[in-house]
Amino acid sequence: MDPMSYYSDKKWCPQCAGYVAYLMSIEHSYCVECGGEVKLFNQTDWEIFHEGLQAKKPKGGRPRKKISTDRESA
């Protein structure tokens, strides 16, 4: 895996309909091509990313408590 580089990092620009270089400010990031606000992913890539997160989440709630019976203690 290649180390991240600020100069090669890209975000999705809805106005340009592609991943572009961007300028970062305190609250938002902006496309260097058109000046529009950029997002981390497009809709398709977000859905794929989100599905991957859901698959890694543990299923169910808290583990059940072990109930001792009279036979186990004898």
What is the C-alpha radius of gyration, as a whole number of Å?
23 Å
* Shape, per Cα inertia axes: elongated
Strand order within the widest sheet? 1-2
What is the residue-averaged pLDDT? 83
Helix proportion: 10-25%
Which residues sit in consecutive blocks of at least 5 with pLDDT less than 50? none
Secondary-structure-based class equals: alpha+beta
Tell me about the largest β-sheet.
2 strands, antiparallel
Terminal CA distance: 57 Å
- Which range does the strand content fall in? 15-25%
The sequence of SSEs as H and E is EEEEHH
Number of H/I helices:
2
Number of strands: 4
In words, what does this structure look like?
- With about 70 residues, this protein is an alpha+beta fold.
- It has a domain at about 1-50.
- The protein has two helices and four strands.
- The protein has helices spanning about 45-55, 70-74, and strands at about 10-15, 20, 20-25, 30.
- It has a two-stranded antiparallel ribbon with strand order 1-2. A two-stranded antiparallel ribbon has the order 3-4.
- Strand 1 (about 10-15) and strand 2 form a beta hairpin.
- The mean pLDDT is about 85.
Secondary-structure topology with pairs:
Elements: E1 11-13, E2 18-20, E3 22-24, E4 29-31, H1 43-56, H2 70-73
Antiparallel strand pairs: 1-2, 3-4
